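Input record (Table S2, row 777):
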Amino acid sequence: MQTHNLGYPRIGSNRELKKACELYWAGTINAAQLELTAKKIREGNWLLQQEAGMDLLPANDFSFYDQVLDTCLMTGAIPDRYHPLIEKEHINPLDLLFAMARGYQKNGYDLTAMEMTKWFDTNYHYIVPEFKRDQKFTAFSNKVIDQFNEAKKAGFKSKPVLLGPVSFLLLGKEKEPGFERIGLLKNLLPVYFEVLEKLDHSGAYYVQMDEPCLALNLGEKAQQALQTAYTAIFRRFPNLRIILANYFDCFGDNLKTVVSLPVHTLHLDLVRCPSQLDDILDKPEFINGRTLLSLGVVDGRNIWKNDFTRSLALIRKATDKIGAGRIWIAPSCSLLHVPCDLDLETNEKSLPAEIRQWMAFARQKLVEVAALREITLHPETAASKKLLRENAACIEARNSSPLIHNPLVKTRVAAITPADAKRNSPFFARKEKQQQELGLPLFPTTTIGSFPQTKEVRAWRAQWKKQLLSDADYYQLLKEATGNSIKWQEETGLDVLVHGEFERNDMVEYFGEQLAGFAFTKNGWVQSYGSRCVKPPVIYGDVYRPNFMTVAWSTYAQSLTSRPVKGMLTGPVTILQWSFVRNDQPRSVTCNQIALAIRDEVTDLEKAGIKIIQIDEPAIREGLPLRKEQQQEYLDWAVTAFRIAASGVQDKTQIHTHMCYSEFNDIINDIAAMDADVITIETSRSQMELLDVFASFEYPNDIGPGVYDIHSPRVPSKEEMVALMEKALTYIPAERLWVNPDCGLKTRDWEETRQALTAMIQAAKALRKNIIAPVPE
Ligand code: GLN
Ligand code: ZN
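Output record (zinc ion complex):
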């Protein structure tokens, strides 16, 4: 019964990799220095995993940017635009990798970066492979073999981790018409053979092939591709022991294919989907075969201590049926998605000891894996009994802790009725009342909420947090920033103003800090993309709102102007999605608790005289379960939670929502069901294409399609924005269109913002003229 780990966080316990990469990009350190930092991280991680009790350590789980990008380099799937960098500029491999990830603007080149998108249902972003019809693959980078050899040389027993060929193809994008990327498998497999051949020669005994596409609803062709790939690999390398890893959900109807694959070990995510253990143990072809099972019983996606009793029951079920000799124990997925080390959390104020003892980060999770094996194999020893007893006591302490249970919150959630999730009147009736109240022109102009978070603003907050700035001084500075922004918006001629969100560090953390039931780590960083890390709050207990959260800022801003100022809130689904969530109750229950807290704020804003309230939900889409079978259930509770948050107000109060991504096709029904009076969305880069689905669905409420791409320093012209809106007008009638940027402006600077918004207001004026007095034919 081996213990193994699928992958360890590569950023380093103190974000060493982030810091070194950024220094390298700034030209402060050289490639050799960066490589040295990376080597230290890898060796440190191997040592730490071995000490935690892992038999088999992952190699090649390290990446300077992203493992999918590394696979592009491994297979030579390098888009043509980067070829001159290799052939003419002879840039080093590291710079090629960063050019593909971040773009390249040097020596007369202006190469765009490859696209990035979310890795399954996580908040990690991977680089999207680009495929052509006649895509060639060649073994290009030797990183897999190098890193395996590095581990070997340092004395560690490792298994190289590769992204499997089928998932690699499916995660990519076809950059020209006329082919299906899954059909590229026959070109791709020879490269995998070459890599495996080298690994075989270097003495790799085990190879972990990650095929997380197995958690999706795969068609016939993808299933066939899996069959082809793994049969061919087995025929060529009968001595390599392939560990086929699936995670984030169950195999579902891919199971029939999976059990017939000639692999050495199948890894199952039993945290996300415990029931699949029964499914697989019911298959005679599996029972009678020799394939091993790797049981992913320790949660690689959350920060709670493992419940040994529950994990041991799963392990026992498996050993009873196929014997301990066919069982391995592991975390449910790569530990990339959790912070490194709980031992670094020493701040009692942000993370009280009582809560801290319920938690486990990457390092602690591996110790749990080792303990589970120990208890399974030697249940009668004093040591095992102690481990089990202590774990049970801790789990029980958490379950019954008054810290997490608030009877008032539970009663209130239980008392939610359908009426709570419904506005008083339908949209058309509300719209009339809102129009009377607000008297907005056609094509009202607004922004999404944040204004530039300049160096000064961030410096004030940093000083205030270090108590170098008093509360009074800090708030005074924020008030001035808010006042200036209101004055500027009014002078420039925006119709609906925002206060600017200067007081906010992050749209989730800001609310978490003011809600009961949230805790914060000091060092709980998780990689989001490249060198970017996030530090998600921890929802440990029942959530409620002890006090007003935004009312003071909104009313202050409103007091400075006669134009409407939007109240600005983060929605319940986004708060849930971007936090570590408690695992002792369904996500939907936690979401409803947050929804009620936001609802309280919404109604208090209304009472304080705020006429327009925006509830941002940029994360609704990413919470969508991977398997189709589960998606509608999620959408139902997520939409209901938004509506609970939004529906406590009178008809005349206008509710906005905002989302910044562009795949609405499959969820447009549910977006409409949110019934926000106005939705603002990101459309400028897609040239309004996504309005297509809003038009064909006959989306009934108001829409603000973004006309200003805020991800780029580029300032769009008035004409450009008029053209975009004219395009929007071919989909949506003028009476239902707003004019706004794609998203918040916090990452932009003031100069660009002023220019772009001034042009945007001129664009709206031009549109009004054209509509009211159309140009004669
Ligand atoms: N109101 C937020 C802002 O303007 C919205 C951010 C987001 O959509 N991610 O920054
Ligand atoms: Zn946005």
